[in-house]
Amino acid sequence: MKSLPAPVRLSRVTLILAVLILSGQSAVPAIAQATRTSGESVADRWDASPLYLTANEMLIATGKPSLVMMSRGSTHVPVWSLSGGTVGQSVAGIVNGLPHDCVAVKVEIVVTSTDVQTSPDLEDVYRVHLSQLVEDAPFTARYALGKPVRTPLSAGPLHSRTIVLESYYEVVPNAPLTVRIQREPGLPGDTFTRPTGLAVVKVTPLNAPPEAHVVQDVSGYNSWPMTQAIGEKLVCTYSRGSKHSIGEDARAVYARTSTDGGKTWTAETVVANTPGYGEVTVGKGLDSTGAMLLWVRRVGKQRMHDLYRTTDGVTFTRIASPELAVPPMQITDVFAVPEVGLIALWFAGNYSDEAVHSWGVMTSSDDGATWTQTPVESGLMKADWPTEPAAVYLGDGKILAVARTESGPAQFQLVSTDNGVTWTRKQTNIGDIMASTPSLILDAETGLLSNYYYERGRGVLRRRVVDPDVVFDNPLHWPASEAVTIGSPITWDSGNVNATVIGAAHYVSFYSGEAPDTAVMVLEIPEPTAEDELIRRKHE
């Protein structure tokens, strides 16, 4: 077994100074930013001092990477050279000194390149392997394989980049943390064939994220919630059956309301319980009068989608059951677009490996009474199929949607510039996912877009916040995620996020538990502010 040197706790100012000198930038503004403190809640997530591993404090784990000196003038920075053509190269080190009160860590790397071909038109891919040396357990017991992280290169050679490889890995305090960094030139997203230099690994201890409120946890498989604000009232609808199944007759749709941010809830009311059918909530929204609309998928001797309307979250009236040329697997959230009316995206297919999958748009000009269906793409393979999309209208005819992937490495982004008539589909860099249904909130005052999604198998509800102008034409530019709450890590017994907003707070629902009993939860979280984003970017 190799004996790895202990890390040295470096000052943040020293790290920033080194990488900026290497790239030829002035270090004075960065030092001022690095030493500034903030009492805001976002900053509290990083109140513990980061720990660092420099290149000299890591050893070869796999393959034959090289420890070299990257130089410019009188500045010399040791880096691990990781090949852009040879797969299987990685280096590792051990981080000691995790605070006794931390519950998780964030892992970042600082990389650079001296190659003249360095350009933001190219990307590279990295991942992290994490485990801990815990007493009375194998050192493999807490192993976690990070998802591949794909990012564009810097503007040119000698520039440095900080890349978040893992935003939330749960740890045992005081136990040594093993970190292995691997470049993945064999993956399709790594288009830069030249070596890159790994200079620093940064490990930031994290406090526990806030806990979610319980909406419903009676015996049974409470799941697949859809949450909508009607004025100041929070309405959470959900489905309950006996297992993870959409078609069982025992499965019906229910609703509860809250006026105190999800802390307490009214008695449960029945929305839909049709004999011989299993019914599941699949989409929500508002009509032009501010009433809530709810799509319910009804599965039995036939598959239908019913649209319900409510003004109080208690009494629901079915207003439409459209007969559609392409029977959808699901119709998703409803949103308004001027000059069009209401829009909902849909997808159809059977999850097979055949080219039978499709998606498209539904529009209504009469507040949901009637709908027109338009396919956008048909005959798709499963790997190219965007499912369970969430969309927001940005203005000037622009719509941005994010969709789940059933087999690919990252969520899809769907954009339109003509009010939803034509669309472009591209893959994003949002890869910390597993069957992760997105939910989008566009904040009216700040213009910031929040993408909430649940990483199944890890039990982490994540959020990415961005100015939509940054990613509309550049879907690989989504910033790193943050963990906003934790749920069950059991893959199919948790997940399916759906969010809404009241005032300056977001309310994010999901389900979590272990079959046959799961609970519907809702997280109350402040909307992100421009200042929050500046603080977050400084910590990256």
TrEMBL record:
It comes from the Bacteria. InterPro entries: Sialidase_sf (IPR036278). Transmembrane segments: none annotated. Keywords: Signal. The keyword Signal applies. Residues 1-32 form the signal peptide. This is BNR/Asp-box repeat protein.
